[in-house]
Automatic annotation (TrEMBL):
Top-level taxonomic group: Eukaryota
Compositional bias annotation for Low complexity: 623-637
Species lineage: Eukaryota, Fungi, Dikarya, Ascomycota, Pezizomycotina
Region (Disordered): 623-647, 809-879
Protein name as annotated: Uncharacterized protein
């Protein structure tokens, strides 16, 4: 007898139609064969989900109906679960995610229960259905399974309370149908006669949770005084009620004490409390720079006194004084945009750690500061020392992971641990946390019927939703994929991506922001928000949209699977986010700051969106290339059947966006810090996508792009665009060489000592005390200890450019020579550096061609690479 076909036989080649045909041939002999029908359904469902074909979807529904109406119902749990899994996978691109696997699947479970005479077997079937629904987060199916379990066990109060909790989960607004049903179930549970003799250990939190979520004041008040009042929902409801009624305690004015009349420790506590109130008042009153500077100097001197002359042995008071000084100095940075203030804040935090190494808030704020200064290896070191727990990962990881691929995509050495830190590996580990935590939460939720803690259901469901729709998770995925394409020329898949929900654009942009920007300190001024954001908004929906557009454009240009399947919506969303969805109140387009972007991110995002538009037009059939293009200046009088006209307009739009990057302006700047480091990486990434798109458009293989639409008349435009991108890349390369050769620790010292009317003198007082105690003072400051922490070896970019651009022009050869001259001194790379191609061998030769200075400070030799250390030569060719 011939072997039955399976999904795996046809999945590799995706020839599902052949598998369906094979099943049909065998079903003619055995029309009710469950294995054959299941295989056929799985083939059709998989084909439908991957090809978005309504015909295959209808066929799979018909097969499912056949399975649900078999004369002998399916009772094998393995078969039932496989069929249900296939139905769920077929709907994986549906947004919002479905709450049920469908009516046919419900019929299958119902028929299996009815056909089973044993009560124990019935309970096993329904328990399995409950667990499967929990793991897939299908609330409607969870509710149906509990209803059937209630019918089988009418006195099981655990099932009853679980049913009430799940019914509340299905409620979307106060007072809707599911909400009213949940309230009814909760009131019955709190009524007389509900609790039986064997229900002494029941978890009574569910009724109070339902009353609190539905906003029932009288019921919540009653529950809070008895059983069931010990839930987070009840506590938050009562707290909010007190706020609305004005019953919260009012702030008491700080008392000014005479330092000569009270112990030093008591005076220090009172003085810090007074300064906290004073600072909050200054922020509320929008105080001037001079006023804030005077406050900062006073706080720095108090911090100095707290750690020296007062000698109170207090732990918290010196930290509070330091954090007040940091808050004021960050406010000065916001008001003046002068980087020397950020250097002062970093030094203050580092000085605090020399005397109080256990203050984790100082380490956290240092991560924010160094990421804002674009010194990612220092930020990595302090973030690693935080030892962030998994439970904190979603709320804290954004501090480091946001824009990490633009600051430090390559490995580095953590000297404290003598370990290699690979951002790609760490980002992957961070994404693994989401998958692992979701699995643990789902397992705990599914086992509620066994351990009886039904009060956990609402909290577990909320936690799972927060993780699945997390904005920080989406940012980490996009950073991981961008680092992958920069370092390895590919965007790899990850379980965290597949478990986020439907692979559609709306699922990326409609997220939940769980980021905690109040984890360090807040004295009336959100320091963390200021350091992480752009001054107006934080990276959010628009940031994700533009990063997703860039990711999709790269995938289409290099023929890799994109992260979304609704490609048309991807570029449409990017345009809308950039121009219309966040317009200001007067109707003008939103600025980069309003969108939570830096100006270069807005420009690079616009370029990525236009490259994506170009590639989508090239992929369309000839009669469909009249798609509306918001970037096209095409005339409505042009015939709609001329694909070359639309492609020419799209090419011009890409060229215009490339010019708008204004690379000459970027490459004309000289700076003592890596201020524009992310702009170099960002533009380099965008230029690589442009070059890959040009290559894709000129390929002879029509499977990747609709090559027939690229007529010979467009070849000059494509070549001009390619040349434009190569020249921009070479300019970035030359500027990186200049930065490597020109920036030294002396420049950073001069920046720190820039005249600021006394603030530096206050910092120097800390320096003197630190030096006298053996702490190293300013000379031990992390930034000053190494030139290479600021701007360092750019050697990798040469070989990378050779592979990416393939441009043996005089201009690029000259840039390569200058690069070699600047780095000819041969600094050792860190232990985590990936393999370097033979193109870099010339860089280790001190006699290499090039006229740039090879002078290296003795104090700076052998330092760990960072800054403008570009990308690994292990990247494969793009063009």
């Amino acid at each position: 007898m011939a072997r039955y076909p399976t999904l795996e036989d046809y999945h590799a080649r995706r020839n599902y139609s052949d598998g369906v045909k094979r099943c049909d041939d065998l079903l003619r002999k055995s029309p009710n064969d469950i294995q054959l029908l299941t295989t056929k359904f799985k083939l059709l469902a998989t084909q439908s989900s991957q090809q978005a074909d309504s015909t295959h979807k209808d066929d799979s529904t018909a097969v499912l109906e056949t399975l649900a109406t078999l004369p002998n119902p399916i009772q094998d749990l393995t078969d039932l679960c496989q069929i249900e899994m296939a139905a769920v996978e077929a709907a994986q691109t549906t947004h919002p995610p479905l709450l049920t696997a469908g009516p046919q699947i419900s019929k299958l479970w119902d028929a299996a229960v009815k056909a089973t005479p044993s009560l124990t077997r019935k309970l096993d079937i329904m328990s399995t259905r409950w667990e499967r629904a929990v793991f897939d987060d299908r609330l409607a199916d969870m509710q149906l399974a509990l209803i059937q379990l209630k019918a089988l066990q009418p006195r099981n109060r655990v099932v009853y309370l679980a049913h009430a909790a799940v019914t509340q989960m299905l409620s979307s607004t106060e007072g809707d149908l599911q909400g009213r049903l949940a309230v009814g179930l909760a009131r019955k549970a709190m009524g007389p006669g509900f609790e039986g003799a064997g229900d002494a250990g029941l978890d009574w939190r569910v009724p109070g949770q339902i009353f609190a979520v539905q906003g029932l004041v009288e019921e919540v008040t009653g529950v809070s005084r008895g059983k069931g009042g010990e839930s987070r929902q009840v506590w938050e409801f009562l707290r909010g009620l007190e706020r609305r009624e004005g019953k919260e305690g009012k702030a008491v004015d700080a008392v000014v004490l005479d330092p000569a009349a009270v112990p030093a420790k008591e005076w220090l506590v009172a003085e810090i409390a007074r300064l906290k109130q004073e600072f909050a008042g200054l922020i509320a009153a929008q105080a001037s720079v001079d006023t804030i500077r005077a406050f900062a100097m006073n706080a720095i001197r108090l911090f100095h006194s707290a750690t020296t002359t007062l000698s109170t042995n207090a732990r918290r008071s010196p930290a509070d004084a330091c954090f007040l000084a940091i808050s004021a100095t960050v406010r000065l940075f916001e008001q003046t945009t002068s980087l020397n203030y950020l250097l002062h804040t970093a030094y203050l935090a580092e000085h605090l750690l020399t005397t109080h190494p256990d203050i984790h808030e100082a380490r956290l704020i240092l991560v924010y500061i160094y990421m804002r200064l674009n010194l990612a290896s220092l930020a990595i070191t302090y973030f690693d020392s935080l030892n962030v727990k998994e439970i904190q990962h979603d709320t804290i990881s954004h501090v480091l992971f946001t824009r990490l691929s633009l600051l430090h995509p390559h490995p580095t050495l953590l000297k404290a641990k003598k370990e290699t830190y690979d951002p790609l590996r760490q980002l992957r580990r961070g994404l693994d946390v989401y998958v692992r935590c979701e699995a643990k939460l789902a397992e705990t939720e599914a086992s509620v019927l066994h351990h009886g803690q039904t009060g956990m259901l609402l909290d577990l469901h909320e936690l799972r939703e927060n993780l699945r729709f997390s904005l920080a998770r989406r940012i980490a995925v996009l950073e991981w994929r961008r680092a992958g394409r920069l370092m390895r020329n590919k965007c790899e898949d990850h379980d965290s991506l597949s478990s986020m929900g439907p692979h559609v654009v709306r699922n990326w942009t409609e997220s939940k922001d769980n980021r905690d920007f109040n984890a360090a300190f807040d004295y009336g001024y959100r320091v963390e928000t200021m350091l992480h954001g752009t001054g107006v908004a934080l990276p959010g929906k628009a940031w994700v949209a533009f990063a997703l557009a860039a990711d999709t454009a790269w995938c289409l240009a290099t023929d890799q699977p994109p992260a979304v399947v609704d490609l048309g919506d991807a570029w449409t969303l990017a345009i809308r986010e950039a121009t219309t969805s966040t317009k200001s109140t007067d109707g003008t387009p939103a600025t980069a700051a309003n969108l939570g972007l830096t100006p270069p991110e807005l420009l690079a995002g616009t370029l990525a969106q236009r490259v994506l538009t170009l590639l989508l037009l090239a992929r369309q059939p000839h009669n469909a290339t009249s798609t509306n293009n918001s970037d096209s200046s095409s005339s409505s009088s042009e015939p709609a059947n001329k694909p070359s006209h639309h492609l020419a307009s799209a090419l011009q739009a890409v060229s215009t966006a490339l010019t708008d990057l204004n690379i000459p302006s970027l490459t004309s700047t000289q700076e003592p810090l890596a201020t524009h480091l992310p702009d170099h990486y960002l533009y380099a990434d965008a230029l690589r996508t442009v070059l890959a798109a040009c290559t894709a458009l000129t390929k002879k293989d029509p499977t990747t792009t609709a090559a027939a639409a690229v007529t010979p008349s467009l070849s000059p435009d494509i070549e001009a665009l390619r040349k434009h991108a190569r020249e921009g890349f070479a300019a970035l390369q030359r500027h990186a060489v200049e930065q490597v050769a020109g920036i030294k620790g002396k420049g950073v010292r001069e920046l720190m000592m820039r005249e600021d009317e006394g603030l530096w003198e206050a910092v120097l007082e800390l320096d003197q005390s630190s030096s006298s105690s053996g702490g190293g003072g300013v000379d031990g400051f992390s930034i000053l200890g190494t030139r290479k922490k600021t701007i360092s070896s750019a050697r990798r970019m040469v070989g990378w450019e050779k592979k990416v651009c393939q441009a043996p022009s005089r201009q690029v050869d000259s840039a390569r020579g200058n690069w070699a001259g600047a780095e000819g001194a041969g600094h050792a790379d860190d232990a985590g550096e990936l393999a370097v191609s033979d193109a870099d061998e010339v860089l280790d030769d001190p006699s290499a061609d090039g006229g740039a200075s090879t002078e290296v400070d003795e104090e700076e030799e052998g330092e760990e690479p960072d800054g403008f250390e570009w990308l690994s030569n292990s990247a494969t060719a793009v063009v």
